[in-house]
Amino acid sequence: MFFENWAFSMPNSIFSYCCNFVHDYYMHVMMFGFFIMSFISIISTFSGHSYKFNFKRNDSRGIEMILQFLVINLLILMIGPGFWLIQYQGRMFFQPEMTLKVSGHQWYWSYEYGDSDFLRFDSFIKSLDDLNVGVYRMFEVDNRCIIPVDVNLGIYCTSTDVIHSFAVPKCFLKMDALMGLLTKVTHQFPVVGVYYGQCSEICGANHSFMPIVLEITSLECWKDWVLSFF
């Protein structure tokens, strides 16, 4: 995409791809409108006419009508994708094939898969002494959250103390973690990879030490990882 390096990174989920598409579409429409208005201004300047926007003159009315018609049509072109994205976002809560409960603490995350008593673990930030070469500082954790690819995952987010926010920007995933409440979203990860995030709600002194690491892998590798808990 033409505006890929200007704003969002490459999408790695269906919803992030839709957001990226709408963003690029809006950018193209606005650039098209800017060039058309610039072209009209240049033509009117070098054609020997001095257009003064006055309702008493017919030539100024013509220019104003052209610009108004152009702006209205640009707004009409931008309405459709916006409504489509809102409608798609409202239909994202499809039936999950697997559930993941995320709990925020001061200052670490806990993950729980389904109703299993074995698939529960805490995820803390790695200290500088435990980091290997090529690993991101302040982003790596001791226990990554492993998720199978192409699975409708129901993510439930909550907190045990203060307000947290479970945010993975590259996946367009952001959920508020509130004590006593469950925030739910259904998400699908179609691309294998490792995605990093952080708590995006100020939650205390060590707020910046709550990284999130989602490792998307194949279903076979995920099953082998699950068997390691037993």
What does this structure look like?
Keywords: Copper, Electron transport, Magnesium, Membrane, Metal-binding, Mitochondrion, Mitochondrion inner membrane, Translocase, Transmembrane, Transmembrane helix, Transport. Its main location: mitochondrion. Residues 95-228 form the Cytochrome oxidase subunit II copper A binding domain. It is an enzyme of class 7 (translocase). By secondary structure, the protein is α+β, with helices and mostly antiparallel strands. The chain has two domains: 14-48 and 56-91; 98-228, Immunoglobulin-like, CATH 2.60.40.420. Helices cover 33% and strands 25% of the residues. It has three helices and ten strands, in the order ααββββββββββα. The strands form two sheets. A five-stranded mixed β-sheet has the order 3-2-1-5-8, with no helix packed on it. A five-stranded mixed β-sheet has the order 4-10-9-6-7. A hairpin with a 4-residue loop joins strand 6 (164-168) and strand 7. The protein starts with 13 loop residues before the first helix and ends with a helix. The model has no long low-confidence stretch (mean pLDDT 80).
